[in-house]
Design goal:
This protein has helices at residues 12-22, 28-37, 51-81. By secondary structure, it is an all-alpha fold.
Length: 83
Amino acid sequence: MRENAEAEGVWLSQYTANFFQDNLLDNTAGALFILSALERQKLSIQFQGTAGDAMQVAARQVFSALLLRKAIESLESNLAFGG
């Protein structure tokens, strides 16, 4: 998972897209909500398009990074403590 977040059975970007859609976050207001909540997260995007689309790309990127980090922490914790 750490080496490839898009590996077979992981598909982080697809999970994130589905999560955003299921929770009605796949719009500019949803992106603003996510970006506001995660405003201190580091971000690096190259994007050409509308500001709204750029916000959605940025929101998915920071959310995916947080989700991946927390998933890895949880797996490592379960391995270390058997829980």
